[in-house]
Amino acid sequence: MLTLGISTSSGQFAIVLGDDRKMIFNSEEYHLAEQKDISVLINKCLEISGKTIFDVNNIIVDIGPGGTSRVRTGIAFANSLSYSLGIKVCPVSSMEMAGINAWEKYSLPVIATVKSINGNAYVGFFNNNTLISTEYGKIENLIPSLIGDCQELVVVGYHRELIISLFPEIKIIDSGMFYGDVKIFAEQALRFINRGILFPEIAFAVTEKSS
Description:
Strand order of the largest sheet: 3-2-1-4-5
Structural class: alpha/beta
CATH class of the largest domain: Alpha Beta
Distance between the termini: 32 Å
CATH architecture of the largest domain: 2-Layer Sandwich
Number of helices: 7
Oligomer: single chain
Radius of gyration: 17 Å
Strand content: 25-35%
């Protein structure tokens, strides 16, 4: 089972290719961090891995939240490729990506955040290896209701220091992470492909209206 992973929600575009649970290409290993053309990244991926686009069985795409134009670029490409190949596209939140990475390291509840406008943020709560909720608004207002009575958690994102300062009564571990690692799309593809959809269904970006 060959799975193509696409992530554009962070500051760089990333492509991975996995065969079952084995990573066979990761664009981050080929000094392509500044490349913003997904077709170029995919062509490089296929060239190095010795595959063709018709070998791909599934597409997993990061649907954000993140930079709106960046996220929609990746989703539009994934939807178009899914349609042209007649294969499923599997939407995965960037909050879930970050949550999985932090949970696997710490086995603690995770708060992940992404900056937005007017002092707002996307805030995701991940616990027991599951994305529980993603909300949009002011961090200080959202986190208490999301975490409930949790007394220990891990933070991911650009607001890590702010969250630690706002909630001194909670034991908070700074993960040092700004966002999740797209490599899980290749290494844990089986976790995601059961949510795959076929046209006329398509993947949509996470926005303040959908959070």
